[in-house]
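Weekly modeling sync, notes
Attendees: S.R. (lead), two postdocs, one rotation student

Agenda item 3: backlog of single-chain predictions. S.R. asked that every request posted to the team notebook include the full sequence so nobody has to chase files. The rotation student volunteered to paste the first one in as an example of the format we agreed on. Action items at the bottom.

Example entry:
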Amino acid sequence: MGEAMMSTQSSQSAVHSARRAGEVRSRERAYRAAAAVVDPEIPAVTIADLGILRGVEMEGDVAVACVTPTYTGCPAVLAIELAVEAALRKAGFEPRVERVISPAWTTDWITEEGREKLRAYGIAPPANASNSIRALFGETEVACPRCGSLETARVSEFGSTACKALYRCERCHEPFDYFKCI
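Predicted structure, as returned to the notebook:
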């Protein structure tokens, strides 16, 4: 009788482990689908690159993606949420997107790969110190994404979007956006 009970427990454990492995695979597949969504304002980077995709969890058959807007008034947040929903649905999931506002997003969440993609796209990535008082007042040294020169000047506090400032390189004379520290 003891062996039969142990065999049943072993079988139940194997079923439970297989179910858990399937859930992990589903969650990973759902995350990859959501993470591939590009930012509508900067199509060179994904929402994962920007760090605004906080995670994806499975609740039964529902893939729940948590997204944090770059800032409260970001006009792209609804477009991003709809794109995540569509990506999850296309990947075979019943989607739900939750907007998470705390903790607030910071430019420190942009991945190194995301920073390189911004630079390659012609946008100077933010300095890695969003908690710096100097950065808050726009006193950060900004390198030109084209030639790397630190001889740059801010032309306008706002660039092509509210989260970017417009700069000009004094060496190569090219204008460029700088993704502001938040």
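Discussion: group reviewed the output briefly. The chain has two domains: 2-99, 111-179.
Action items: rotation student to repeat for the remaining queue; S.R. to check formatting next week.
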